[in-house]
Amino acid sequence: MLKQTIEKIEFIDLQAQQRALGDKIPQVMHEVLKHGGYILGPEVKKLEEELAIYTQATDVITCSNGTDALRLLLLAYGVGPGDAVFVPSFTFASTAEVVAQANATPVFVDICPKTYNMDPKSLEQAIATVAKLSLNPKGIIAVDLFGMPANYDALHQVAAQHHLWLIADAAQSFGGAINGKVVGNLATTTATSFFPSKPLACYGDGGAIFTTDEKIGNLIRSLRNHGCGADRYDHIHIGLNSRLDTLQAAILIEKLRIFPLELARRKEIAAMYNQGLASLVTVPTHAPEVSPAWGLYSILCPDNQRAQVMQGLAEHQVPSNVYYRKPLHLQPAYAHFPRAAASLIHTETISSQVLSLPMHPYLSNAQVEYIIEAMHQVLG
Ligand SMILES: *Cc1c(COP(=O)(O)O)cnc(C)c1O
After folding, report:
1. pLDDT averaged over 10-residue windows placed end to end, the chain, 380 residues
2. Which residues of 306-340 are buried (b: 16+ CB within 10 A; e: fewer)?
3. What is the CA radius of gyration of the chain?
4. For a pocket test of ligand 1, which of 195, 240, 248, 252 has the largest count of ligand atoms closer than 8 A to its C-beta?
5. How far is the centre of ligand 1, averaged over its atoms, from the C-alpha of 369 (Å)?
6. C-alpha 321 – ligand 1 centre gap (Å)
7. What is the pLDDT of residue 37?
8. What are the residues facing 139 on neighbouring strands?
């Protein structure tokens, strides 16, 4: 049972964050209510400028959600029927969904067993597979799963060799970095999400595109607003309605202010977990130059013991979740699409063992220690 001194542990604690923000959020919401610029109001532009400073991206375009951020990028790259886009299978549905929605073909790639991110070798295999089909290989969407930036050096090499573009799906990794270079600036184009459970999050749906290519930035700024030109009622592209609400932008500006502190705390918690759990289960590992955002903290349970671990943790009032139980290449809606090999072995193994523990910046040391102790009791 939970010790008397430990507060209830949440998987992600948005209430604690609200308490930390005090009356800031109602204040900035009230400002928006006062000026009434609900669509593309001044806070949207301000947020985009602040995100550009944070990421060092040339251009930042906010949009309705992370899925649309990917969708807008595929529109900008002109992806359509007959095109193949390489995606990991071990990811949230959006990564492949946007490709299929563009009437193109997602091609599933396996992951590295250590980082759970796209394996450049499996990518090469997938490219060879597509060469035998009558499809045009167009690009790659790499995912920074659980907040750990993908191996962009290796992926860029494969992309360049095969004349493919590379999009970073950074929905889980805002705040991550490689060699001090921040997510948003690790690929020419990056998509992120501000869904409430992501590292930087609003109180609803939201997303953004980061790019170092000014042309793509300008195109996407038009596409997210019905393909408008200089005038709102000039339509120079066929676009969509995918603007970030001004209210959400105002909320994100305040959340971005505390984000560096939150990120530092996530890193402390991940280090405590790593130290406390390494003898018990497989803990996340990464190259020394990689700095994860710790959107989620995920371990691998010993074979066939995940259900028991989850049950045991629940008995100790410790919530846990599985991301993702069923990889996309085995999902009914996606199983017919091509893949790098008949079975994506690392994806299949890891999806059967992976388990995410509570991760948010407002976990106390006592709570983290309690979770580690609970893990030892369950598996000891
Ligand atoms: C959350 C997520 C998305 C989609 O973001 P939404 O804002 O929910 O549309 C895309 N890709 C990955 C990897 C995600 O985790």
Report:
1. 75 94 96 98 98 94 98 98 98 98 98 97 97 95 98 98 98 98 97 98 98 96 96 94 98 98 98 98 96 98 95 97 98 98 97 98 97 95
2. beebbebbeebebbbbbbbeebbbbeeebeebbbb
3. 21
4. 195
5. 30
6. 16
7. 98
8. 85, 165
d(CA 334, CA 210): 28
- Ligand 1 first shell, C-beta below 6 A: 65-67, 91-92, 94-95, 143, 169, 171-172, 193, 195, 205, 207
3-state secondary structure of 318: coil
Q: Cα separation of 248 and 38, whole Å?
A: 10
Q: By C-alpha distance, which of 123, 75, 77, 81 is closest to 104?
A: 81
How far is the centre of ligand 1, averaged over its atoms, from the C-alpha of 336 (Å)? 22
Q: What is the pTM of this model?
A: 0.97
Q: Confirm if 260 and 267 have CB atoms less than 8 A apart.
A: no
